[in-house]
Amino acid sequence: MRLQLLALLSLPLLSFASQEQQIVMSNDVTTDYSPATNTKPTLADLLTIEPSASIFYSYARELELSAMFSEPSTRSTLFAPTNKAVMALARKPHQGASMPSDEGIHISEEEFDKLSKQNVERWVSAHIVPKSPISLESEEQPTMLDGKSISFTPITKNDGQGPEWSRVTLEDGVRIVDMKEGLNGVLYLIDGTIAYE
């Protein structure tokens, strides 16, 4: 009780002492500060708030190339598989199509990590077209993965109604289920994945 009373009575003294040590700031404001604002979110913002593409974005964030998703001057088109599409893969992106099996082949943990990162980079790169906007009516669009292009096929029972993205499929019948436009490109959510091997 006495300790609490003593602490309570000493507060004004501490306050007075700290006031003497404070630096007085000038009221001269010569420059107006205005935070940078954008009319649209970046691709990174769109991926952050899109729960159905969280697995794709978690893989992409591991890579240096994901910095382009935040860069306003770098325009790209992303074909992000939904979580359901990634979960349905027999081999996950970090496993790749050519990971060594456990039978008789031994690699160090460092080599395994390096190989996993390369597989993820190839997989993510196959889902990025390094320009935006793109025409989905063209036959192919080259991706960031060397030698890989995404091909588009018009849906046969298409009545010509609806947005362009709803009237095409990607290779192997993968459908675009949603489209979001960002400051630095377009995000298409797809119900499958882009084959890259």
UniProtKB/TrEMBL annotation:
UniProt xrefs under SUPFAM superfamilies: FAS1 domain
PANTHER family: FAS1 DOMAIN-CONTAINING PROTEIN YDR262W
Segments forming domain FAS1: 40-194
InterPro entries (UniProt xref): FAS1_dom_sf (IPR036378), FAS1_domain (IPR000782), Mug57-like (IPR040200)
Gene3D superfamilies with a match to the protein in the record: FAS1 domain
Keywords from the UniProt entry: Signal
Organism domain of life: Eukaryota
Name of the protein this chain belongs to: FAS1 domain-containing protein
Signal peptide: 1-17
Organism: Lyophyllum shimeji (Hon-shimeji)
UniProt KW Signal keyword: yes
